[in-house]
Amino acid sequence: MKKDILATPKGKTFKLADGKEYTLSPFNLNTLANLEEAFDCELEELESKLKKHSATAFRKLLLVLLLEDYPDLTLIDVGKLVSLDKMTDIVAELTIALGELKV
After folding, report:
1. Helix locations, the chain, DSSP H
2. Residues 35, 43: contact at Cβ < 8 Å?
3. pTM of the entire structure?
4. What values do phi and psi take at 73, rounded to 5?
5. Strand pairing partners for 22?
6. What is the pLDDT of residues 43-73, one digit of tens each?
C-alpha cells in the first residue's frame, strides 16, 4: 500500500488542568516556521534554547503547538492549563518529538 504523503499526521492528545482534551499540532512546515518566529531564531538554534528547560520556553513551545487548533489561546492561558502534575508527561512527549525533528 502506497503511503499518502499529504495525509495529516495526528498530534498527541493530553487532558489539561481545565479537564478538557487538547491535541498538540504535529510538526509540519507551518509549525516549524511558527517556532522560528516565536523563538526569534533558526531551527538549528532552537534546540539549544529549549535545552535550558526554562518554563518560559516550555510555555511558548506549547502555545505554538496548540495555536493551530486553538487559535484563541494566549501564553497566560497555556500557563494556567498545565498543572505541575501534568508537566512531566507533556515535557517528556515534547522532548521525544523534538528529538525526532531533524531538519
Report:
1. 29-39, 43-50, 55-67, 75-81, 84-100
2. yes
3. 0.79
4. -70, 150
5. 14
6. 888 877 777 778 898 899 999 999 999 999 9
Q: What is the CA radius of gyration of the chain?
A: 14
What does the pLDDT read at residue 2? Answer: 57
**Confidence grade of residue 20 (pLDDT, cut at 50, 70, 90):** very high
Distance from C-alpha of 35 to C-alpha of 2, rounded to nearest angstrom = 31
C-alpha cell at 69: 487548533
Strand 21-23 relative to strand 13-15, pairing: antiparallel
- Residue 6 has a pLDDT of 52
Length of the chain: 103
